[in-house]
Amino acid sequence: MKPKLVVLTGAGISAESGLRTFRDSDGLWEGHDVYEVASPNGWAKNPSLVQEFYNLRRKDVLAAKPNAAHIGLAELEEWYDVRIITQNIDDLHERGGSSRVLHLHGEILKMRSEYDETLLFDIAEDIQMGQLAPDGGQFRPHVVWFGEDVSMIQPAVLEIVQADAFVLIGTSLNVYPAAGLVNYLRADVPRFIIDKKIPPVSDSANWTLIEKAATEGIAELKELLKL
Known about the structure:
Layout: E1 4-9, H1 11-15, E2 28-29, E3 32-33, H2 34-37, H3 40-45, H4 47-63, H5 68-75, E4 81-86, H6 92-96, E5 101-103, E6 106-113, E7 120-122, E8 139-143, H7 153-161, E9 165-169, E10 191-194, E11 207-210, H8 214-225
Parallel strand pairs: 1-4, 1-9, 4-5, 9-10, 10-11
Antiparallel strand pairs: 2-3, 6-7, 6-8
Helix pairs in contact: 5-8
């Protein structure tokens, strides 16, 4: 049995692949107020704007390539049972070679009915207004918006409580409930943070801090974790 390495990743790991988030520019995401394009109210007010916004994000993701950090995590599967929990909606972990990836906030390459979040379909093209799910609901991106339930949080907690080692990469720990996952770690679990700007953690003395970009930090982590 390989030891279980649980990794929680945020936007910082995909930034080096050219994918930006609204946190890059004072709450604006590609020029839009985030609540205009990432909330149920925004969808109700102007669904065409929201649809077009995510159609563009999907194109960005398809054009991006996994970087050395994504690939490095996949390579750790040689020594560990690696479980990735990501706040990112891109598929760069999968394309980087990771075999077990849990998406907390959905996946841009899937679409769902606006009525039923379990009616999921793969999508690599634009989603069109008027394109309806089998239940008659408009198709929308399979993305968790602000104010919506994070249905994958309980499966994520189950991974965290079984961790033999834990790594936090490229997340500010500002978005809940994802930020609260670190509180479920067992006290004796070795824990690492990789970030250009280390986020505040209450028990920072118990963490190994790697204050570097994700690609550099993963190279250092691999040396620390090799069995």
